[in-house]
Design goal:
This protein is mainly α and 1006 residues long. Helices cover 56% and strands 6% of the residues. It has 45 helices and 13 strands.
Length: 1006
Amino acid sequence: MRNFLCWTPSAVRQVINPFAEHMPDSLFQAVHTDWPLQVATPAGKSFQDVGEAAWAELTPPAFLDDFLREDRPHALAAILGETGSGKSHLVHWMRLHVREDARRMVLVVRKSGTSLRAIVREIIGKLPADQQQTFLDTFNAAGDGAMGREGRKHELLNHLAQAVREDVLDRDGDELEEELLRCIPDLLQDPYMRKEHFLREGGVVGEIVDHIFAESNAKDRPDRRRLFGPDDLALGGMDFVHATKLAKDAIQLIELDQAVNLPVAIAIINRNLDKAIARTLSFAGDRIEELMARLRAYLKEQGRELVLLVEEFARLQGIDRALLQAITSHGDERQCRMRTAIAVTTGFFASVAETAYMRTTHIVDMDRSAGRAAGQAVTPSSLAEFAARYLNAARLGRERIEQWSLSAGPGDAAPSRCDECPYRPECHPTFGQIDGYGLYPFTERSLWIGAGRADQSLPASLNPRVLQNNLLVEVLDTFAPTIEAGEYPPQRLLEKLGGVKNLTLASENLLKGRDAREAGRWTALLELYDGTGTIVNPPASLREAFSVPEIPDVSIGAQNSIPKSVTAPAPAPAPSASPDDTAIESWIRGGGLDQAVAGRLREALFPAIVEALDWDMLGLARTSFAGQSGRPFQRTSISFVRQTTKAAGYLQVKLEIDADPKTGQALQGLLRAAKNDFRWDFPGGDRALGAFLDQLEQWCAEVATQLRRLTAPQPDWSSATAALHLLAVGAAIGGKIRANATAGDVIDAAFAGWAEDPAASAPDLRGLYAKIVKQREDLVTIARSQISSMKGGQAGSMLDPRRALGPVRSLRAAKWRLNQQPPADDQSSLAKLYRDVKAGLEAATRAEQSVRSAWREEMEGAFGAGSTRGTIVATVTAARRAALDAGIGAQNASRALDEALERFGSAYFDDALAVSRTIAQAEDALAILPSYGRGRANAVAAGSALRRATQTFLDAVEQNLESFGGDQAAAAQDVATNVAAVEQSLKGIVESLKGMRTAEETAHAA
């Protein structure tokens, strides 16, 4: 027996159909299981008064016998339970066992495949023809479809608005309710509100109209009353703008205090809904009561009783309360005896009037009954008994079940398909059987485990619909191909059923270590067929049936018994598990990672990764690439899938830790070791350390890959080259590089100290220099971290010439044009600076060339092409000495001139003038970039000071000469002659210095 399918997967859903009313009687009989029912009689004045002691256990036949007792003048059984609990199934079973005959008429209201209108028409049809007409006249007033669905929606709203108008405020009502009763009809009848809210497709109004007139199906069958909710009165947006004035009053009132007023408005609408439905149906509640009274009177005349079986009481919304009133009246000399069983939600039954509740004879709680054994909790055996019949029916198929049912009696059991199977001798001992029905491909244990995963209410109660949909159909249909292919149970099935719950992360990691390809199936098999949380080999016969290989070096586990550890479907984590372990395991299983745990993991992971990285091999300085903010790899670079916070987008290196068992084991061990001075000597520490070292290697490899990608030269971009380029440009502007400098000289200048104020005068070039200086330390760090010799992850004092010479040579070959191209998405400070300097450098050098050329022309025009600092100093000094010797020199002006001469004498005026001539002659302004760093700034400042001091001195001399008068004319003649000579000689100097000052002021002002 291997990879065997004893059923047809495509036909499974024809047999295992959780919608009981759609199930043919033959199939119903084949899968039905008689569970003991929990039955009570009314206690007190409402359902809430029924205590635990009131419930008694009855078998279904015993309950039916009591329901049909001849001495009962009346019977009303309320079959309660949540959706899928088996309410309709029990009503179906009652229908099969309560046959219509000469003694009774059986009227069945199906849950789907009908409409409220069709139900009323069917009841009318039970009357003799001569008594039907008056009811048909009323009934047909609603028309037979000529109005159309949209027209009926409008009609329902009209009736609802009118019903609200007719509503009478009770004694407990307040002013708010009174005002809402007045304005809600205006809201319901407003054309805009109808179009945008009440008549929209998928709204409650359309659902109610379909409930009244359209034949329902399995998709829209009701399991509770259709009512207005907050979404149906979701006012806002443009409602107030487009609504009529009366509707605006309603909107304002509701939105005045929406938390209080909206629920009151909804309650008013819903309490008038039944009246609106009845009027839309054209069959009001009083007519329902009259119809039922007439039918019972007719049956009384025939000596028959009426049995009404309602598969879902919500199917009768609109007439349900009137019908309930009609069926609670006892039979008498005018009306026949009536027995009614209604499937109804617990919530609705709890709201019925006291009179109706008190006249209920049986209360059956399916939530307490389905799947339970002897009135207690659901057990593995009772669950297996339920599932076995469905499994057998799936093997038989619809056709064989139909054939069997032709001759089967009401209580007969369906034949077992296993009786014909050649694998039965090995299958039943391996997988188990109930009453001859094999449990394959389940075992009793796997059914129990799987059901507990599919239905969280186990073992307190069982919802048959959930078990059928989420377990039986999934395995027999969806995952049947994996059985046939030898791939069962697949990990996808385990994930659908809640994932790993019992095996530890260490166990999962161990299974992966034994065989990574089979680890997923081993995990699924152990979780779904063993459930103890330990690694054992399931019996060989079970593994062989699914082609699951043996787990090496592991013992064989128990076969079919249910161990104590799995009597609860979803065991809680072991008490010894720490909160950190629990949080990490929850994350591995698909949950989010707690922020606090993530923080502790980062604190431990970051230094471990930084220490484990081979920085020398990377050729990077650790302190430049790993550390606090600003470094590419930071603590916050580490994130975890499904963590509760997002990783920052600006991070250059991002390491996302994936969630898998091995990672979980590693991280659990890391946090344990961190609490113990990073000693791994705790139980299982050796395996956790092994897992951590394996994962650490992967994490380091990922970080290293990203760092290489970040720093690796791309065809057009290298961060180290870019940093070195900018440093060289800055050194050139700052005057640290000679025109004939070697590549080594350029590298030395790039890392040497720079002047704060450059020789350049043009604002653009000075601005670029300031930007480079501002980020110089970062540029040095980037360059050194990638082009220095490394030792222990630290940048050495020596630059690696192989890495440094290339960028410098390429820059000089390009005549100082920056040729790197930062990626468009690179927003780092380096990339931004490089773009700025590259974009502005050529224009800035042309501007500086223009300023230097203008200054040279001014100097040569004033002093002549051959003027030098020496000739200017000698001429001014002679004039000063002559004036002083003649006694007409002003002392203050003389001292100032002396200081100016001393300063001018130390300025590199001749060099600045020579450089300016070179700059002026250059055709490519950028190619001579180092020339702009040579000294004109001091010469201009010294020349300007000399010009002012000389002018002041000459003015003082002229004033003194005039004050001497005619008596001293002869004595002063020699001085005047010298002064005239000085003035003639200095005339050009004065004019030139004025031009220098003007050019300087203009340049700085710009």
